[in-house]
Design brief:
Layout lengths: L1 H15 L27 H4 L6 E2 L10 E9 L8 E8 L5 E2 L7 E2 L3 E9 L2 E8 L21 E4 L2 E8 L7 E12 L2 E13 L4 E8 L4 E8 L5 E8 L4 E2 L17 E2 L1
Antiparallel strand pairs: 1-7, 2-3, 3-6, 4-5, 6-7, 8-9, 9-10, 10-11, 11-12, 11-15, 12-13, 13-14, 14-16
Length: 260
């Protein structure tokens, strides 16, 4: 929890200084003078394509009109071959919004893709666009939730999202989603979230291991080293990659009943 608190403290300082912790990566895309009032509304789900079934690299999975934002390799299937995880982002210039006095805001949707290594190339094992919280012209006070937070370590793929509101909203903090191949498909096997109350300084952290059923809840304050941790068990099971919804609204407790 200490590492997460340090990251949140840095993000808070950046946000209060007027700098988004997630740089709006729109430098390479044309910026149209779209205002908040005239920004177009699109059906994100209908704009998200099915990715190719296989490819030699992350670039081979990028559909027309999209770009590769980040890619990492590592063995998440346990077969000794490198696997591939990547984040793609649509490149619609109409969804890059300019407001006077603010940096351009890119609200294009993203896709998380996972491809497993095989002889000579990679086979797509799953994709998910819903896990990335959707921003629209009415949510520009929320910083870009994805800041290249994709990594592989010890056979586990981790996607990190961060919640920070420049105006409004009392909560902030990171959300971590942990995936690996499990029972023949890529599944969510763990979840960590640290919530910091911006007004009071109170912190609440939850960590859930879907494989062992372990859960810990830790409370504290950002100005104190004292913490209280309660361990419990849960019957939550691994969740297929394509069934994980909005990362900021993920209700792990509602998947199966929690038992103290």
């Amino acid at each position: 929890m200490k590492n997460l608190l340090f990251a949140v403290t840095v993000a808070t300082a950046a946000g209060l200084a007027g700098c988004s912790p997630a740089a709006e990566s729109a430098a390479d895309a044309p910026i149209l003078p779209v205002t908040q009032a005239t920004a177009p509304a699109i059906g994100v789900a209908s704009s998200v394509p099915e990715l190719p079934a296989q490819g030699a690299s992350a670039a081979a999975f990028v559909p027309a009109g999209w770009r590769l934002e980040q890619a990492v390799e590592g063995d998440i299937s346990g077969d000794g071959l490198p696997d591939l995880a990547f984040v793609l982002r649509r490149g619609d210039p109409k969804l890059i919004i300019r407001r006077e006095g603010f940096a351009p805001s890119d609200i294009n949707p993203r896709i998380l893709g996972v491809a497993l290594g095989q002889a000579g190339d990679f086979r797509l094992a799953g994709q998910n666009h819903a896990i990335f919280p959707e921003r629209d012209a009415d949510m520009l006070n929320m910083d870009d939730p994805f800041d290249a937070g994709l990594s592989v370590a010890n056979g586990v793929l981790t996607l990190e999202l961060n919640l920070f509101m420049s105006m409004g909203g009392s909560s902030m903090g990171p959300y971590q989603f942990h995936f690996r191949q499990q029972d023949g498909s890529v599944k969510l096997i763990g979840y960590d979230h640290l919530d910091v109350h911006r007004m009071t300084g109170d912190t609440t952290a939850v960590s859930v291991d879907f494989l062992t059923g372990r859960r810990t809840d830790t409370t504290g304050r950002i100005d104190s080293e004292r913490e209280t941790t309660v361990a419990s068990r849960t019957a939550v099971k691994p969740v297929p990659l394509d069934q994980v919804g909005d990362g900021f609204a993920f209700e792990y407790d509602q998947l199966t009943p929690h038992t103290p």
